[in-house]
Amino acid sequence: MLEALGAYSVDSVEAADVVVFMTCCVREAADVRLYGQVASMKNIPLREGTPLSKRIVAVGGCIGQRDGQELVDKMPHLDVVFGTHNLASLPTLLTEAVQKGGHRVQVLESSTEFPTDLPTQREHEWAAWLPITIGCNNFCSYCIVPYVRGREKSRTIEDITEEAQRYVDAGVTEITLLGQNVNSYGRDLYGEPRFAQILKAVAGTGVKRLRFATSHPKDLSDEVIALFGELPCLMPALHLPVQSGSNRILKEMNRRYTREHYLELIRKVREVRPDIALSTDIIVGFPGETEEDFQQTYDLVKEVGYGQVFTFIYSKREGTPAAKMEDDTPREVIQERFDRLVELVQAQAYEQNQKDADATVEVLVEGTSKRDANLLVGKSPKNQTVHAPIPEGRTIDELAGTYVSVKVDTARTWYLSGTVVD
Questions:
Q1: β pairing state of 375-379 and 360-368
Q2: Around 310, how many Cα atoms within 13 Å sit in the side-chain half-sphere?
Q3: What are the C-alpha distances in Å from 248 to residues 142, 317, 327?
Q4: Which of 76, 208, 266, 412 has the smallest number of CB atoms closer than 10 Å to its CB?
Q5: pLDDT of res. 115
Q6: Exposed, middle or buried: residue 349 (CB in 10 Å: 0-12, 13-18, 19+)?
């Protein structure tokens, strides 16, 4: 959209006439970082030769949706604020800010269009993110998302399939279906979830690799689980956030499943696809969490054996039910539990990667290692990061976006490394 205005991207803030911050408000850290970074704009001089009298600063996304005018009140040098439902307004708001000056704040309560209706530019020609649903109806007690992203809204099966086919015809070999809760897809349109139908339809386009994120355990159906054994393109990797292993805490979180139900899902998935790589999200320090509650979470992680766990210390979000819950647990106790869990997670990640220590894995090459330009880096079917020396006589430009076989000789906690054998 900005390129359509005649703008172009630059490599540093110092060279920018217009700076747009896209924001998330799931955790408090994002708020802190936003205010600090927007404040720093005042101290960065304009580039030499700019046609503008001042740098235009805009804030959009979830914090823009939540705070609106309040952002301008707190940061007067901010020029534009927009929310999650009116991304398409950004060019107009920026133009008005440049031509007329003053503040431009526009936050809508809902949207009549889907984000995919907007012009897009993919980072890689061989991979595509494909949103199938936006918003969320779950209202987990700790989560701000439904309040800033709105209610669940699905695209039609035909629309999604047509877009996927266009990607495949253009050379895309990996598609990731996106949604706040992908496996409840279609409930608003068809009266029941139809995520399994979407997986089959997109698989029918001939795409080589198919992934999806993120799933909610209460909506993961047996039909979807079965597809891990039926669709060759559906990669053996599943992100299934558990958040807590304590039924008491899960109820307080309004997650609407139990520890037992979650573990049964894991059993079913592994029965269909024994080699599947599992990942999850866990919150430590939810209000009122006791040592017994935490121990149940710790034991669940130990039992499942995840390849990757995203761990978070609970972040209070004003406007959510959990923000009103009292908690007198000392911060140092929460931090000790968190550290204990991270230690287990790292040990498990290392253990899971050892299963591929002598395997040959197919790798989609993404580029070179940030630490060593002589090493290619890519992803395995399990979504593991894989390193290997660039074969002699080959260049990363010709390898990027292709698939190579890597004989693994080293398995670390967060990556595999080996040698290209084809």
A1: antiparallel
A2: 9
A3: 15, 21, 15
A4: 76
A5: 76
A6: buried
Question: Is the model's pLDDT at 110 over the cut of 90?
Answer: no
Nearest to 352 by CA among 302, 315, 283, 295: 302
CB 94 within 8 A of CB 102: no
Of the candidates 370, 373, 364, 380, the one whose C-alpha atom is nearest the C-alpha of residue 415 is: 380
Count of other CB atoms within 10 angstroms of residue 30 = 16
Q: Which residues contact 290 (CB under 8 A, 6 or more apart)?
A: none
pLDDT by residue (tens digit) across 137-186?
999 999 999 999 999 999 999 999 999 999 999 999 999 999 999 999 99
Say which residue the tokens 């509650």 belong to.
Answer: 293
Q: At what angle do helices 291-304 and 331-354 cross, to 10 degrees?
A: 10
Q: Nearest Cα to 106, choosing from 57, 158, 60?
A: 60
Q: Each residue of 287-323: pLDDT tens digit?
A: 999 999 999 999 999 999 999 999 999 999 999 999 9
Tokens for 136? Answer: 């969320």
Residue 146 in tokens? 């439904």
Q: What order do you get walking across the sheet with 104-106 strand by strand?
A: 18-23, 56-61, 80-82, 104-106
CB 135 within 8 Å of CB 53: no
**Cα dihedral sign for 26, 30, 35, 41?**
negative
Alpha-carbon separation of residue 408 from 361, 375, 388 (angstroms): 7, 14, 9
Please report, for residues 240, 251, 365, the alpha-carbon distance to residue 167 in angstroms, rounded to integers and kept in the order given: 27, 41, 18
Q: Which of 21-30, 174-183, 195-204, 346-355 has the lowest mean pLDDT?
A: 21-30
Any idea which residue has 């805009």 for tokens? 58
